[in-house]
């Protein structure tokens, strides 16, 4: 039982990070109807920006304080992501209003490859380090309950707590603030929102900026764990099965879906993987998403769309 709980907790902590990335997909889809395939590239771009500015700013200003460099790097990277959001709305989405969904999907694919290439051109393509002070050593808990206790990674625990706090903060933002209510109004009906004076262009910039902020925090955490490298965008794509499972229009669905995927892939690797020769963790999430597409396409908490003719 102790080993089972250890695996389960590790999976849930990883799942919370998946939920944070999936939240970017959900927010953009709710506000604009765009399935943002570029969210993974945004995670990589944001992580590159923070890693490099945290390194460059102390050199430019002539000080040697890693904490201050990280703070300033995070702030500058956030400004960069807001500028990216504004450019996406101004140059891409603003030109494709009322276009077919496949057109918007292809546009986000173009944004994906542009951000991947431009980010590495601008910031470099080496493996960069982000050190935000997360403890690396593991710890044992519940030693009085289970023989030997349960091994938990402090780094994963703190990362999961940061992700959970941000998810809760964004949920409150959308539920309790005027801007959040405007975003939900746009999500429900674009034309009705415009008719009462809600500017779609401003709302889209805000929601892409919020998704950029979520991508930056996710990139910062994953970059601290794995290093900032091209594979980050591939890790971020694990959020695709999460939104399919939880529902493209549901913030709680993104959270629950992430936890299910995170726990499921860890448990399946340990308990089912040996029968398949290992490696099940790589494809488990996508097979589960495929099953949901066949049985319940709208996901666990998504809205079922009925077309009347």
Throw out a few tags for this protein:
globular, 309 residues, single chain, mainly alpha, 3% strand, 13 helices, 2 strands, two-stranded antiparallel sheet
Topology:
Layout lengths: L1 H31 L6 H23 L4 H26 L9 H23 L14 E4 L8 E4 H23 L1 H11 L1 H6 L4 H27 L4 H6 L2 H8 L4 H21 L1 H4 L3 H16 L14
Antiparallel strand pairs: 1-2
Helix pairs in contact: 1-5, 1-6, 1-8, 1-10, 1-11, 2-3, 2-4, 2-8, 3-8, 5-6, 5-8, 10-11, 10-13, 11-13
Please provide a written account of the structure:
There is one protein chain. The model has no long low-confidence stretch (mean pLDDT 81). The radius of gyration is 20 Å and the shape is globular. It has 13 helices and two strands; from the N terminus they run ααααββααααααααα. It has one domain (2-295). Strands 1-2 form a two-stranded antiparallel ribbon. The N and C termini lie far apart (54 Å). The longest helix has 31 residues, at 2-32. 73% of the residues lie in helices and 3% in strands. It has helices at residues 2-32, 39-61, 66-91, 101-123, 154-176, 178-188, 190-195, 200-226, 231-236, 239-246, 251-271, 273-276, 280-295, and strands at 138-141, 150-153. The relative contact order is 0.19. By secondary structure, it is an all-alpha fold.
Tell me the total number of β-strands: 2
How many individual domains? 1
Question: Approximately what portion of the residues adopt beta-strand conformation?
Answer: under 5%
Distance between the first and last residues' Cα: 54 Å
* Broad shape: globular
Mean of pLDDT: 81
Annotation field: number of helices: 13
Helix content: over 70%
Residue stretches low in confidence (pLDDT < 50, at least 5 long) are none
What class would the helix/strand composition place it in?
mainly alpha
């Amino acid at each position: 039982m102790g080993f089972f709980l250890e695996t389960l907790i590790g999976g849930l902590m990883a799942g919370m990070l998946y939920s944070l990335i999936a939240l970017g997909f959900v927010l953009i889809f709710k506000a604009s109807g765009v399935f943002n395939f570029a969210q993974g590239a945004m995670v990589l771009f944001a992580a590159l920006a923070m890693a490099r500015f945290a390194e460059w700013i102390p050199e430019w200003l002539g000080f040697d304080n890693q904490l201050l460099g990280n703070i300033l790097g995070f702030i500058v990277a956030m400004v960069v992501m807001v500028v990216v959001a504004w450019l996406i709305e101004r140059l891409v989405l603003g030109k494709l209003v009322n276009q077919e969904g496949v057109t918007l999907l292809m546009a986000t694919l173009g944004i994906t490859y542009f951000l991947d290439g431009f980010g590495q051109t601008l910031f470099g393509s080496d493996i960069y380090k982000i050190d935000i002070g997360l403890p690396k050593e593991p710890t044992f808990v519940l030693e009085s309950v289970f023989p030997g206790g349960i091994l938990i990674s402090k780094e994963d625990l703190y990362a999961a707590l940061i992700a959970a706090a941000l998810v809760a903060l964004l949920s409150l933002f959308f539920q309790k603030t005027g801007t959040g209510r405007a975003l939900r109004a746009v999500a429900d009906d674009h034309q009705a929102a415009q008719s009462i004076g809600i500017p779609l262009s401003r709302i889209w910039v805000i929601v892409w900026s919020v998704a950029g902020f979520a991508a930056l925090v996710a990139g910062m955490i994953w970059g601290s764990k794995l290093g900032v490298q091209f594979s980050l965008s591939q890790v971020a794509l694990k959020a695709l099965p999460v939104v399919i499972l939880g529902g493209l229009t549901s913030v709680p669905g993104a959270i629950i879906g992430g936890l299910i995927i995170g726990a499921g892939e860890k448990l399946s690797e340990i308990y089912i993987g040996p029968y398949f020769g290992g490696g099940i963790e790589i494809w488990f999430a996508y097979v589960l998403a495929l099953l949901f597409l066949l049985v319940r396409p709208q996901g666990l908490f998504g809205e079922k769309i009925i077309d009347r003719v």
